[in-house]
C-alpha cells in the first residue's frame, strides 16, 4: 500500500490563501452595490452632458441629473417593496423572480405610461410667484431633490417603508419656506396631504381586513374547503381583475389615453366578467385531487398574486417616476429657457434616468424592504397577500373618485397591518373559528399525532410585531417635517455657495 505523502506546510499556506480569498470576496461584495450605484449616477451625468452641452445652464443640469439619478435609486430601494413584498412573503414567488418582474414592469410603466407633463411646483404646494426668480427656483428644486433622496436613503437603511411622494412634498415645502417664508406655502394643500397620513393606511387596512374576513368565513373555516374554493376563488379572481383593469385605466395609461372614471368602471366590470368565465374551469381543474386543508388553498392564489405584483409595479412606474424626475425636468426647463413655468414636459432622457434608476435601485437595494414588508411585520400567506394587493388597488380607486391625496406606500403597508391586526382579533373573538377548531379537534382526538391545545402564552402571542409598527408609524409622521428641515438648510447653503 502506497502511503499518501502530504506537505503540511504547503497545505496550511494554501488554506490560508483560500481563507483570505473568501474573506476578500465577502468584503468586496459589500462594495459592489454602492459601486454600481455610483457608476450609474456618473453615467447619468455623462448622458445629460451629451444632451445639454453648449446650452444655457449646462453645468446646473448635469448636477441635477446626478441628483435625480440618486433620488430614483432611493425610490427603487424603498417604495417598490410595497408592490412585490406581500407576494414574496407569502412564497407565491421567489425574491429573484419578484425583482425581475418589478424591474421590468416598473420600467415599462415609467417609459410607456409615465406622465409627460408635471407641475413644476409639486402639487401646488408653493405659490409660483414666491419663487419666480429662476435661480431661486433651481436652488429650491435641487434642495428638495437632495433632501428627499437623503431622507428615503436613511429610511431604507433603518428598514422603514416611507412615502416618496411625502418626502418630495416635504422637500419642496422646506425649500419654499426658506426661499419666501411660510406665507408662500399653500397650507390647505398641506393639510390634505397630512390627512392622508391617516386616511391611506386606515382605508388600506380596513379593506384588506374585510376581504380576509370574507375568505375566512366563506372558504377557510368550511368543512369542505375545496368545494368552497371552487365557488369563491373565481369570484375573487374576477374582483381582482376588474379592480386592476379599473386601476390601470385610471392611473396607469393616462399618458396614452385619458379615461373618464365611469368608463374605467365599465372596463373593469367587463374584465371582471371575462375573468370569472375563464377562472371557473381553471380553478376547477387546479383543485382536483387537492387535500381538504389550508395548504391546498394557497396554490389557488399563487398565480393571481404574481399578476398583481406585475400590475402594481407597472402602475407605480407610471405614476411615481415623476417623484424622481419631475423636479429634475423643472430644473432642466428653467435652466434652458431662463423662466419658471407652471407646467413642463419631461424630456425622454430625463424619463429614462428615472425609469432605469428606479429599477436599478430595486435590484441593488430593494431586498431589505421587500423582506420587511413581506415577512417581518406579520406572517403572510397567499390568501392574506391577495387581500393586501387587492386593497392597494381598491383604495387608490376610491381615493381618486373622492379626490383624496393618498400614498401608495401607506396604503400597502397599512393593508399589511390591517391583515395582521384582524388576525389577532379574529383568533380570539370569532365564534365560527372557535366552533370549527373545537369540532375538528374532537374529530382528531383519536389521532396520536393531533396537535395539543395551544398554551395561554401562544394564545396571547401578538401576530403583528409592535416594534416594526411603532418604527414605521414614527417614520411616516416625521417624513414631511424631516425632509422640509433638511431641504431648508440645503437651500440656504446652495444660495450661499452660488451667490
TrEMBL record:
One GO CC term, this protein: membrane
Keywords, sorted A to Z: Membrane, Phosphate transport, Transmembrane, Transmembrane helix, Transport
Species assigned in the record: Hoeflea halophila
Main location group: membrane
Pfam families for the chain: PHO4 (PF01384)
Family: Belongs to the inorganic phosphate transporter (PiT) (TC 2.A.20) family.
GO biological process: phosphate ion transmembrane transport
TM annotation in the entry: 30-52, 58-80, 92-115, 135-156, 193-220, 232-250, 256-279, 300-318, 346-365, 385-404, 469-494
Annotated compartments: Membrane
Membrane topology: Multi-pass membrane protein
Superkingdom in the source lineage: Bacteria
GO MF: phosphate transmembrane transporter activity
InterPro entries: Phos_transporter (IPR001204)
Protein name from the UniProt record: Phosphate transporter
